[in-house]
Amino acid sequence: MKISELTLFNNKAETAGIGLFLLLAVLPLVLGVLYALLYSLGLIGLISDGFTFSHWQRALSDQEFWLSILYTFYIALTTIAISITSALAASLYINKPLQKGIAGFSAYIPLAFPAIVVAFLAFQLGSQSGFFARLFFQFGIITDTAAFPEMVNDPFGIGIIAAHTFMAMPFFTLYFMSLYDQENISELSQVAQTLGASRTAQLRRIIVPIILKRAFPTLTLYTIFVMGSYEIPLILGRQTPQMMSVLVIRKLRRFSLSTIPEAYITALVFIAIILTILYLLFKSRTFSYDLDR
Amino acid sequence: MNLMIRYFFILCALLLLSCSGNEQQQPDLSTLGWEQIQHRAEGQTVNMMMWQGDPNINAYMQNYVVPKVKELYNVDLEIASGQGNTIVSILMSELEAGKEEGELDLVWINGETFYQLRQINGLYGPFVSQLPNAKYIDFDNPFIKYDFQQPINGYEVPWGNVQFMMIYDSAQVQNPPKTKEQLARYVRSHPGTFTIANDFSGMTFLKSLLIGIAGPGTLDGSFDQEKYQKYSTQLWEYINNIKSDFWKNGETFPSSVSAMHQLFVNGELHFTMSNNDAEVDNKISEGFFPESARAYLLDNGTIQNSHYLGIPVNSSQKAGAMVVSNFMISPEAQYRKARPDVWGDGTVLDVQKLPEKIASKFSTLPKESHAPNNKKMQEKALQELAPEYMIRLYEDFRTHVIQQ
Amino acid sequence: MTSTVNIKSFWAKVLAATFIFPVAYLLVLSLAESWLFPELFPVSFTAERWSTLFSTNSELFNSLLLSLVVAVMVAFISTLSGFYTSKQLAYHRKRKLWMRLSYFPFVLSPVIYAAVLYYYFIELNLAGNIGGVILGHILIAYPYSVILFSGFWGNRTQRIEQLVQTLGGNRWQTYKHVFLPLAQGLLLICFFQTFLISWFEYGLTTIIGVGKVQTLTLKVFQYINEANFYNAALASSLLILPPIILLYFNKKYLFQKRW
């Protein structure tokens, strides 16, 4: 009896709540995809000549487009791999000094940096006349700027990866340390120790697997976040290949107006990739909502 | 499901509301006298979009034009950052959405932007002849009268006139290369010290080379696909031949001329370039360029062109935009803009038409001291080509050079 | 044993230096009169940039205020509406679907999201004005807020609500005396996190705001564009100082699993 009264009581509130949610979180995405789709098929737009697949054909046969997808994955996966490794090392090896004093405070500092400032900094420090190059120059390691290795606008995206790592690594370190406490990992490894497992075995068989398994959804979401980043590759990247978000905006704002549909196609493909990754993530068992967690 | 339907209707209502709102028609300004326009402009807020890649230009606008138009005409001028391609893209989206009152009221444009905006019917006009100060404009000068070979027809008002310059550091380089052969030799023997900015300055440089390859006058007139194909192939061949000795092995290019200046100042590059012949002087005087920096011309000549102000067709503050642009071509504003310590942008006014007092001020402007004199510049001035050449150069520089 | 402790604390110090150095670098650059290659340190300093910031009509100061207004509005609206809706969603039989859906806009690249939505913002007269930028930020911050609060609502809160109602309390009283105090910490975290989402946002702001709504991040970009690195450093300092101050008060406000 009580229950049904409750649902009845909640009905209006529920309508408002879920309505607001649909309006702000679901509808925009649907409308956005719809618009991009119509534009890419030539159904809307000032310069459109009616329904056509030609934009799709042109976009998909463009080598730059595929390179951009590969490059986006390369940057995101490399960043995440480096960040996870270094964060694991830091959170397991120097967790004690990292929990107190200046060091404890400092790990939080990168969280106060917006992406655009990190990009600016990476450029200032890493360019061939930047701070590090000056350091090398003053110590006589290099005699002119060209001798300093390229770290920004470089072919391998070193600057982009470094900037993202600067933001991701401390975040992962703090996250792993909190997981370590939450999951009572120290107790588990003590049990293992009494059973005769070496420290390496504990790390390999217990600690790292538990942390990574628990962190998997967060790590995946962070990967998606890096894939969609804009300011960092815009400032630190090259003109080609470009990450997808940069490519979309460039194609949208070219003098040759004919590439606008291709910009929307790139956007659609990006959205499709993200949706697929999220779908796979939700399907995996590591991701669930238990009411009583 | 019920919920969805209701929700859908709310949305439709919202859309309707936004469409049916403010439909108040602006009166036809072309029938009004200047005083009436000034009267309408009072209290308007004019949103101007312009390239903001130079601190001096930004300071001139922010510290001089903005307070002046407020003081004199009670117009609030607000400035947003955006280059030609962004302006075209914004206007295009607005026109697609059928937006009658756009976000932009005044735009700083020339050449290919003017062309694209005309293509999509994005510009308001003709309005130039209504501006009282337009009578001072030097419309006999072909470099002002034509914007990339296009007659302006009153759809944009000339604002400044400049010539492209190469800039080098005389402390490092004794004989700067003045022909494309010399340049190739220089690049080969000094790898990593030369590059081309991937923006309008770099494209203007390429255009000067293209004209040099094709020969004087060959490319004049409207866009010729065959000629373009022929000569641009040679241009790309030339660039790709020496590209491996460009800055960063020619695998990437600075995204803007300001980034290039920075590389020049830090010694990574021996050369930079500028669309503004006075830039070398004003950058030296502010201590940004070394005292030894010099501007010079290519033997084949460099491009001289003008830049303009246009009013978007869907601007809701056209009167205000007209009043602001009239102020910006006033003798005082033009004089101040021409001062090398302010901006050093060439005037579009015919000094002989001006009242004597202000005309004498123009004649006492300090002469450019680190750049070729006016006479030499005029001798080497090349006319702009049709805008399609610029658009193609942007596209093809990417596909034929950057992506190779 | 002591030597391992020493090595560990050495590495911790190296890491700490890596994280603190950028802040110092930005402050020094913002105070440098000129700092060119190959100088390792600026030759002379000037406080002029910082002092003009507080003079009348400073563009940068206006951007600071604008950023502050936008971020506070976004944080306030997102936190409250997220708190309210997350409850309805959490109790709903389709909660799993709702929660999953809320991740999409949150992780999607804001700049791409803005590109495909720009048309609608124009239609709704929301392009190029502060209202549109706030709405744009909310489209990202609100789903985050929903996700953050989803863990708060559960059987426990349901039982409490029933209890309060059995005792004759109405819905407003339930919120005022039970839920809001219970969620106080989380609400604050959410407020600051959504504040930062807005405070840090660049790509969406420049598209939806048509470059006219010049928040601090846009100013940084503009200064980078004109190769005016000293002012870029100043604007960057203004961006990072508030979060660092916040950090000083409570680390929790900054470190929250956002993904």
Descriptive notes:
Chain A: This is Sugar ABC transporter permease. The complex is a heterotrimer of chains A (293), B (404) and C (259). In chain A, 70% of the residues lie in helices and 0% in strands. Residues 1-9 and 288-293 of chain A have low confidence and may be disordered. Chain A is mainly α and 293 residues long. The two termini of chain A are 27 Å apart. In chain A, helix 2 (54-60) packs across helix 12 (260-283) and helix 9 (199-227) runs antiparallel to helix 12. Chain A is built from 12 helices and no strands. Chain A has a single domain (62-290), classed as MetI-like fold. Chain B contains 16 helices and 11 strands. The radius of gyration of chain B is 23 Å and the shape is globular. In chain B, the strands form 3 sheets. In chain B, strands 1, 2, 3, 6, 10 and 11 form a 6-stranded mixed beta sheet that branches. In chain B, strands 8-7-9 form a 3-stranded antiparallel beta sheet. Chain B has a two-stranded antiparallel sheet with strand order 4-5. Chain B is α/β, with parallel strands linked by helices. Chain C is mostly helical. Chain C has 12 helices and 2 strands. Chain C has helices spanning 2-31, 48-53, 59-91, 95-107, 110-123, 130-150, 155-166, 171-182, 184-200, 203-208, 216-225, 229-249; strands spanning 32-34, 44-45. The two termini of chain C are 38 Å apart. Chains in contact: A-B, A-C, B-C.
How do the helices and strands line up, and which of them pair or pack?
The complex is a heterotrimer of chains A (293), B (404) and C (259).
Chain A: H1 2-40, H2 54-60, H3 63-93, H4 101-106, H5 115-126, H6 131-138, H7 158-182, H8 185-194, H9 199-227, H10 231-236, H11 244-252, H12 260-283
Chain B: H1 2-20, H2 34-41, E1 45-50, H3 55-73, E2 76-81, H4 84-96, E3 106-109, H5 111-119, H6 142-145, E4 146-147, E5 150-151, E6 157-163, E7 165-169, H7 180-189, H8 200-214, H9 225-242, H10 257-265, E8 271-274, H11 279-285, E9 293-296, E10 302-310, H12 318-328, H13 331-338, H14 356-363, H15 374-379, E11 381-382, H16 387-402
Parallel strand pairs in B: 1-2, 1-3, 10-11
Antiparallel strand pairs in B: 3-10, 4-5, 6-10, 7-8, 7-9
Helix pairs in contact in B: 2-12, 4-5, 5-16, 8-9, 8-16, 9-16, 13-14
Chain C: H1 2-31, E1 32-34, E2 44-45, H2 48-53, H3 59-91, H4 95-107, H5 110-123, H6 130-150, H7 155-166, H8 171-182, H9 184-200, H10 203-208, H11 216-225, H12 229-249
Antiparallel strand pairs in C: 1-2
InterPro entries (chain A): MetI-like, MetI-like_sf
Subcellular location (chain A): Cell inner membrane; Cell membrane
Membrane topology (chain A): Multi-pass membrane protein
